[in-house]
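User: Predict the complex with adenosine-5'-[phenylalaninyl-phosphate].
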Amino acid sequence: MSAISDQTLKSVLESAISRVAEARDAKELDEIRVAFLGKKGLVTEQMKRLGTLPPEERKTFGAQVNEAKNGVEDAIKKRGAELESLRYADLAEKEWIDVTVPGEPVKRGHLNPISQIQYELEDIFTSLGFAVVDGPHVETEFNNFEALNIPADHPARDMQDTFWTEDGNLLRTHTSCMQIRAMQRMKPPMRLIAPGRVFRYEATDASHENTFYQMEGLMIDRNISVSNLIHFMKTLLREIFKRDVKIRLRPGYFPFVEPGFELDINCLICGGSGCPVCKQSGWVELLPCGLVHPNVLKNVGIDPSEFTGFAFGLGLNRLVMMRYGIDDIRHFLSGDVRFVEQF
Ligand code: FA5
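Assistant: Here is the predicted structure with adenosine-5'-[phenylalaninyl-phosphate] placed in the model:
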């Protein structure tokens, strides 16, 4: 009995060792483990025979089976480690990276010239103590018109053709609505700018878009007068154009300012001789402005007998056009990257 068992055990061990040595991967190795050491494995079967042996043979046979079991386990462990290092060697071979090869240049996007000029203006005005505020594109009729002294039947509503939403709100037609939001939230004295996108339901041409950018400016304090307004307008233009540009100030009508002005800039596309951008007039409307109308102050709960202020609404697209000599406002939204890449 013992001799047969010895023999069987030996051949089981030999067969296990040779199969383990031939295993090509971790999966195969595991199958071999199950075949020999699993619940119904060949080594396990030998162990089960222990109980059937006469007591005097059990000790020796038990030790031999254990030895065989340990032998198979060791072989599996050793082959497992070998396979693992072969796998890493293979990976290193296949996924080899030459870290000295120069990288692909990363293509960097850049800012649209309107954003660039907006950030410059924000720097100029924050250095003069102005806050930068923001507001939503969809506005209430109250903030965009009524609070600005433009009631529903006022003819000035025709000056800004409006995109209405189905629920009675609108796409803001100018940045002046942000004056209202700011004055409702803050107490004077205050100085702020509010840049942003605005929308008008109108036909486009070389100097008109239906989506364009403005920057509102507002300063409320005691004793603010037209001379304060002119000082800040001049500073603005000098900082942006880095030279003296020819301007003219003429009366302008906006219900939310009194007096109101139009500040025009000598057309820098044609030098004043006349072109489609300035509609052959030699001048481009750039910076409407004025002293805040007392009704507007009252609408937001500020006492006009104590505080006065100025406001302006700068057309950012036209400012960029003047600075870079862009001859058609429609380039901005054309989606042509060759246009933006020039700045
Ligand atoms: C206004 O929008 C007033 N809210 C400005 C204002 C603010 C006046 C504060 C007084 C006090 P206006 O509609 O003129 O005004 O537009 C202001 C500027 O936006 C214009 O001078 C022009 O530069 C620009 N602009 C107006 N309409 C268009 C358009 N369709 N396309 C491109 N730019 C435009």
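The domain at 113-340 is CATH 3.30.930.10 (BirA Bifunctional Protein; domain 2).
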